[in-house]
Amino acid sequence: MKRPVVAITGPTRGAFGPRFMVAWAVRMYGGKPLQVRPGDPLAELRYDAVVVTGGHDIDPVLYAAEPEVQPKYDAERDALETAVIDDALARGLPLLGICRGAQLLNARRGGNLFQELRSHRKMTSNRWTILPLKTLCVESDSWLAKLLATRRCRINSLHNQAIDRVGHGLRIVGRDLDGIIQAVEDPTQPFLLGVQWHPEFLLFLRRQRRLFCALLQACRQTARAPGGDRVR
Question: CB of 193 within 8 A of CB of 216?
Fold first, then answer.
């Protein structure tokens, strides 16, 4: 079987570190990374799975809300990743949304976001950290719990927004100690997962590497299924 192609979305410039680390993880588990940026000819690209990486806040117009904080949006990236997510959902491709990616996935399923988190925190810090210093509490009967092989672990925190109302078909499977949503999944799909933390910066932890391993396994299982040619 040929190596599955994994589209890794990101901004036109910058975000080299996250994109590099995601690509490294994809290669580690036998995939071929395809970096996708605004302006790329999306209709001509061929991919078997998608990773939507983190970055700036998404425009609240995408979930029918007015801005509540000083905006820092990337309209071109919003448009690109909206199209990629919609395509992946329509074709049943394995999809991992990281931070911003989880938020946009939720919005595309009809959910919305908390635009600021400071007022929602009582037990957790609002400080950003790339280190695994925040506690993740995982639902015991979730696919994520089986994947991480634990109900509680440490994660990093690089976000100032988070999921509020959950989108259609998504299930909350992880929260922090303040009850803020940290992970959602769709149990009806082979692999549809959104995580609020950045597993690409935690690849030294085996349980975090499993997210990328499972993504590539889902690609291979989908390709072997009847009618399973998922390449665009």
Answer: no
The end-to-end CA distance of the chain, in Å, is 16
Please write the tens of the pLDDT for every residue from 187-218.
999 999 999 999 999 999 999 999 999 999 99
Sign of CA dihedral 232, 147, 203, 100: positive
Number of Cβ within 10 Å of residue 69's Cβ equals: 11
- Token pair listed for 186: 């769709």
The β-bridge partners of 52 are 9, 97
What are the catalytic residues?
99, 198, 200
Q: What's the token pair of residue 6? A: 């994994």
Q: Is 135 helix (H, G, I), strand (E, B) or coil?
A: strand
* Sole residue written with tokens 């299930």: 171
Contacts of 149 (CB under 8 A, 6+ apart): 207, 210
* Location of structure tokens 């810090």: 125
pLDDT of amino acid 148: 96
Q: Do the beta carbons of residue 47 and residue 34 sit within 8 Å?
A: yes
Among the listed residues 33, 108, 24, the one whose alpha carbon sits nearest the alpha carbon of residue 63: 108
Identify the residue whose tokens are 């001509």: 44
* Helices 206-224 and 16-28, axial angle in degrees (round to 10): 60
> Who's near 160: CB < 8 A, 6+ residues apart?
57, 116, 117, 126, 128
